Amino acid sequence: MLTILGKPTAKNGTFCDGVSRRSFLKIGGMALGGISLPGALRAEAESQTGSNHKAIINIYLPGGPSHIDLWDPKPDAPKEIRGEFAPIKTNVPGVEICELFPRMASMMDKFIPVRTISDADGRHDAYQCMTGRTFGSRQPPGGWPAAGAFVSKLQGPVNSAVPAHVALMYKTGNGTWGEPGTGGFLGVPYAPFNLVGRKARSSPDNMILQGITLERLRDRVKLQKAFDSFRRDADTSGLMESMDVYSQQAMNILTTSKLADALDLSKEDPQILARYGESSEKFQRDGAPPMIENFCMARRLVEAGARFVSLNYSRWDWHGPDGMNFPKSREEFPRLDQGLAALVTDLHERGLDKDVSVVVWGEFGRTPKINKNNSRDHWPRVSCAMLAGGGMRAGQVIGRTNRKGEYAEDRPVKFQEVFATLYQNVGLDLNGTRIFDTAGTPQYLVDQGIEPIHELI
Known about the structure:
This is DUF1501 domain-containing protein. InterPro entries: Alkaline_phosphatase_core_sf, DUF1501, TAT_signal. By secondary structure, the chain is an alpha/beta fold. It contains 13 helices and 18 strands. The chain has a seven-stranded mixed β-sheet, with helices on both faces. A three-stranded mixed β-sheet has the order 2-1-9, covered by helices on one side. A hairpin with a 6-residue loop joins strand 15 (400-401) and strand 16 (408-410). It starts with a strand and ends in a 14-residue tail after the last strand.
């Protein structure tokens, strides 16, 4: 892969764009699932689709956050179920959420809690939040594409400088929490262009443009020299066989300021950036770091031309013997509250609330009954999501769980229904779109019979 290191500051050891030394930009083949950047550009050029620039921001909370402690409080349940947090009223009459989300509560008319996602696979991975499908479902040859791959394939790039399908998915100790999905049967050109990761050991497939920082991306002469050196090394190792017109387009991505500017948070209005709060570069055990600035980065990438941005945020698996469910909630919830409120406020202030959809979720929920460690275990029977933007009818709750938060009592929702809603928001035709897999079998964006959440459209 091509790795572009940011310039570290002497003050705190992080890069000027807010990414730590352990988190670096990857621009090149491995970030695209093993194909060269020119190959991806070739596929995009061949698609010739194009559409209005609508986009999706997919925020994945690795580990399975507790639905009861987040956005489906049960104050009338027994203490061993309702937990340590009280509900607070929101600016939508009759809707309450956890007391640790006061910012979101004050603008709940711009959010949509979905309280009854009921078909979780039960696996500790990002697969269902990236594809909508269960891991054990029938796989077409080549596998199911990530949702962003469908969007990239069907709508193409907004411009040549920013890939349509990008990710800010950190490589995690538990590897399945850092997987942004693949191009599946669509092919690796539509796989996510991942922009962050842990610093890997030196290897033949991890070649660095030495001395090229984000600040110097605009220096075409120096970048060309560094790229020429990379090319020689790549040719020697057999990673590149030729350079053609698409390689020149690849160079355009590297040399234009558009992608670099989107990733450079020093160019953001400091007052706007401050709304999001402060991140920690520390990886949360085997999860991702709580890089709240990546919420702002996702918005900047969308503005620059990305159509689908996925990111993983922190670690939400707190049911071990250390009993950290409630202490970690007190640490994580306020930061998530601030970041989500800032992101949705930004979208509305910039007039993007009709065009950009946001979804926030994890792989499953948590047991209503608190365990002996004062924590909650895995609970696939029901989980939650938070939606915003996309022109959806906000200020309402989708679904109702029973008094103890054990199961959907009304309006169970499937992961694919959420994706069907997101696809419709960005202008994809659910019923009229067929894409043939590698065996020539027609496939649809979602399974037949799956419809968008009608209350939101």
